[in-house]
Amino acid sequence: MVVSPRYLNGVSDKKYAASFDTGVRIKVPCFGDQPEVGFFHEYRAGVDWVFVDHPSYHRPGNPYGDENGAFGDNQFRFTILCHAACEAPLVLPLGGYTYGQNCFFLVNDWHAGLVPLLLAAKYRPHGVYKDARSILVIHNLAHQGVEPAATYHKLGLPPDWYGAVEWVFPTWARTHALDKGETVNILKGAIVTVDRIVTVSQGYAWEITTGEGGCGLQDLLSNRKSVLNGITNGIDIDEWDPTSDKHIPFHYSIDNLSGKVGSLLCMQSYSFAKCKAALQKELGFAIRSECPVIGFIGRLDYQKGTDLIMMAIPELLQHDIQFVMLGSGDRQTENWMRSTESNYKEKFRGWVGFNIPVSHRITAGCDMLLMPSRFEPCGLNQLYAMRYATVPVVHKTGGLRDTVENFDPFAENGNGRGTGWAFSPLTKESMLTALRLAITTFRKHKASWEGLMKRGMSRDSTWDNAALKYEQVFEWALMDPPYVK
User: Fold this and answer.
1) For residues 249 and 273, is the Cβ–Cβ distance under 8 A?
2) CB within 10 Å: which end of the chain, N or C, has fewer?
3) Band of residue 216 on the pLDDT scale cut at 50, 70, 90
4) What are the pLDDT digits (tens) for 80-106?
5) The pLDDT value given to residue 267
6) Residue 264's pLDDT band (boundaries 50, 70, 90)?
7) Which residues form the Glycosyl transferase family domain (predicted)?
8) For 310, what's the count of Cα atoms within 13 Å in the CB-facing half-sphere?
9) Measured between alpha carbons, how far is 482 from 472 in angstroms, rounded to an integer?
10) Cα-Cα-Cα-Cα dihedral sign, residues 234, 236, 237, 240
11) Looking at per-residue confidence, does 69 or 232 come out higher?
């Protein structure tokens, strides 16, 4: 069973067309009241999809906020989700029967983090869910669900459980002298009560136990290291498939790269790069197969290292290259993209916003994809890029370190090894060095470049391996008794 809010924003409403109202209503004991939620249900591909319905989920924007920032009532919206998720297996007659109490709860980030707390504080003391287990998946530790301590009574937890979510900010992080720094931290509560913890890559599992990557929770996570595992995400290989992608103009495979690069080895140059030429035409660039095209796709914010790109562009564009950025977020960066495009019309394009078909065409048409993220729990764009024979150049952090093997032209008896470039430290100079190596390899060593493309395409990025590892974590979770205060 998948439990999710029924988000209605006028755009995604059709996603729920096949779901139906179960007629089941429950009152959620939280926020000093008992807000009522309903449940919609769709059975699809062997999965019960349950959508929790409440007016707070019906608004424009994304699940967490809009152009003005995060929604101010997110604590309320996700508190009622957690309560509803705990009740769903008990009250919903799906297919004529309820799931019952013998469940695993796989909860994602702070938004579902109250679930293990509710199991331990509200249900197990009364003999309900006494054998249930919970697993927390941390996708991004920077988001923790922190609110003022005065909001604790709204969460629907017993008064004597305050210590589980209590979080006090250090003096330097407080806004003024009278600020005591007292808060409730839902993710912290999940970390201390959940049965096992998973992050979305092995590298990130280690990073969050360090002072640099732990976002203040490193000591707690270090203490729970025995139940902490990293499992690298997979990708949807049906949506991201260069042999059948409906968004790209030419199809290709590891055995036939002609749709990507035309005639691959012809007098040590590409005779006609098909997807690349189509992208160059769409962006208004000169159609030049020998000119490397570098792309960036992602949110425009500090985490993604866009400030590093801004600093490096004047030097980078001194090379004979073309650069395209697709993304939205920080307004200053969006304006910089627009002005840089006007100043470097022959070499730079900034696509402000996000467009799924365009992201596919950039992934297929570029020669390289740049990801200078400060931290990256897993990252998916580098996985898409390798599947599309586009060589990633990434900062050596988190999931990027795990998934992109640094290129070594002298390994394997001179045949080369690696799928891209992973640079460190995170500096403009280090990034430019990696990009220059990539550009030189593209221009002068076509056989090595072909090896990079094919090794990237042959990497197994499916969910199959990840699923096996999750099943192992489920087995481990059953070896110990569930959390009891």
Assistant:
1) no
2) C
3) very high
4) 999 999 999 999 999 889 999 999 999
5) 37
6) very low
7) 287-431
8) 16
9) 17
10) negative
11) 232
User: Around Cβ 212, how many Cβ atoms within 10 Å?
Assistant: 11
Rounding to the nearest 10 degrees, give the CA dihedral for residues 419, 423, 429, 431.
50
> Whose CA is closest to 154, among 217, 85, 88, 74?
74
The tokens for 318 are: 């001194």
Bridge partner list, 351: 326
One-letter amino acid identity for 362?
A: I
Distance CA 71, CA 340 (A): 32
Q: State the fold for domain 258-459.
A: Rossmann fold (3.40.50)
Integer Cα distance of 29 and 80 in angstroms: 9
| Pair of tokens at residue 75 | 């604590």
3-state helix/strand/coil string of 9-28: CCCCHHHHCCCEEEEEEEEC
Longest dimension (CA), the chain: 76
| Mean pLDDT value across residues 363-376 | 96
This prediction's pTM: 0.89
**Full DSSP string of 256-299:** -THHHHSSSSBTTB-S--HHHHHHHHHHT----TTS-EEEEES-
Cα separation, 457 vs 232, in Å, equals 17
Mean model confidence pLDDT for the chain = 93
Q: What is the pLDDT of residue 10?
A: 86
Task: Calculate the dihedral angle through the C-alpha atoms of 108, 111, 115, 120, rounding to the nearest 10 degrees.
Answer: 110
* Extents of the domains making up the chain: 2-235+465-479, 258-459
Dihedral angle, C-alpha 354, 359, 365, 369, nearest 10 ° = 90
Please give the structure tokens belonging to residue 349: 């394009």
Contact 314, 432 (CB under 8 A): no
